[in-house]
Amino acid sequence: MVIGVPDSGLDAALGYSRESGIPYGVGFIKNRYIGRTFIQPTQSQREKSVRIKLNALAHTVEGKRVILVDDSIVRGTTSARIVSLLREAGAKEVHMRLSSPPFIDVCYFGTDVSSKKNLIACQMSQEEIRKHIGADSLGYLSVEGIKKVAERPNCDYCVGCFTGEYPVPVPGEHGPSKFDKAISNEEKNNK
User: Fold this and answer.
1) What domains sit in the chain, N to C, each tagged with a CATH number?
2) How far apart are CA 86 and CA 157, in angstroms?
3) In whole angstroms, what is the distance from residue 81 CA to residue 75 CA?
4) Burial zone of 38 (CB within 10 Å; 0-12 exposed, 13-18 middle, 19+ buried)
């Protein structure tokens, strides 16, 4: 069975299902009040948010080999938790597929990742990531593959966070993200 991680992996999971001929199913119910967990400022906050963000549907995955599709792995917190949720719900195997290449560099144009130290693909090999998240296998879309996704507009787009090569000059070393810094009392009083 192919299932997507709500909401970021749903479209890619449906496409994977159609191309592979493997049935598509709904494997999770999502708590809509929890946002993107990878941007939480601390690991404990990210883990707490992931715990209440998704619930696996046992009747969908129990006893099945599951292909789990998501858009990316940034830190690995969400991926490890959802693989664990599927196993707890009775999935026999969990094979993780990502509709992007590994994030190996800072993104200046959309994904709020301010440092390579926050990227699991900069800290571990693909096999180490697979073991870390608890999946039976792990596969990424290639950089060439992601460029084919939007061929019709006949334009190029940035793949810098996947290659380290950006279409425009980017800043050198920069400080921590605004989300990584505590708000000082002076800043609180000025708001």
Assistant:
1) 2-189 (3.40.50.2020)
2) 35
3) 12
4) buried
Upstream peptide bond of 7 is cis (omega within 30 degrees of 0): yes
Contact 14, 24 (CB under 8 A): yes
Tokens representing 38 are 């990878």
Pull the structure tokens for residue 28: 């999770």
Residue among 7, 135, 12, 3 at smallest CA distance from 58: 3
pLDDT of the chain along its 191 residues, tens only? 999 999 899 999 999 999 999 999 999 988 776 655 555 566 676 666 666 778 899 999 999 999 999 999 988 888 998 999 999 999 999 999 999 999 999 888 777 676 888 899 999 999 999 999 999 999 999 999 988 877 766 677 788 999 999 888 887 655 555 555 666 655 555 55
CA distance readout (Å), 102 to 55, 73, 97, 121, 129:
26, 7, 11, 6, 11
Residue 22: what residue type? Answer: I
CA gap 66, 34 in Å, rounded: 24
Other CB atoms within 10 A of residue 165 CB: 10
Parallel/antiparallel/unpaired status of strands 2-4 and 65-70: parallel
